[in-house]
Amino acid sequence: xxxxxxxxxxxxxKVHIATKSSLFKVNYGREPRVGFDIRKKEKHVKAxxxxxxxxxxxxxxxxxxxxxxEMKRYADKNRxxxxxxxxxxxxxxxxxxxxxxxxxxxxxxxxxxxxxxYMVKKIISENAVELELLVLLRIHLVxxxxxxxxxxxxxxxxxxxxxxxxxIEGEKEYEVEKILDRQERRGKLKYLVR
Length: 194
Description:
Order of helices and strands: HHHEHEEEEEEEE
Distance between the termini: 87 Å
Low-confidence stretches: none
Number of domains: 3
Helix content: 25-40%
Radius of gyration: 39 Å
Mean pLDDT: 79
Strand content: 15-25%
Oligomer: single chain
Number of helices: 4
Shape: rod-shaped
């Protein structure tokens, strides 16, 4: 219905060639009022005050929207796309946020950065997943996705499988393909072999 009123207003406000004025002026003897044109200032003080208040509020709202957009742009600068996980995916958990009692056991710089792999049991939200964890870990089953990374299966040939030792005269020995290097440490020779 709003479009009908708009069309009617446009038709009545149009200057016609024959009369050289609008239909509204021909019928009522004056031009139609458009918007808030205040005619007598002394009688409409409250209306003026209300109009100023609304204008100020609108300016404040525009400033807030602009500020929010700037904050969002600044926050999104360092944000990366969130990895989508599915039930059954294997993930590694970051050791960065683990309890201090776990860290005390090992020298920090020698500690692994990630442990696992663990299976995703349930998707809680796009930011949290529930994992199948060992009871020994003493952490909550629901983990934020920032603390986990997708587990990559090892490429063929990447995992070094040690050959089985050969038993000679009751002692286990390994067959050496090639001696790569040697070094003396504390009076004993050490060899780097393949």
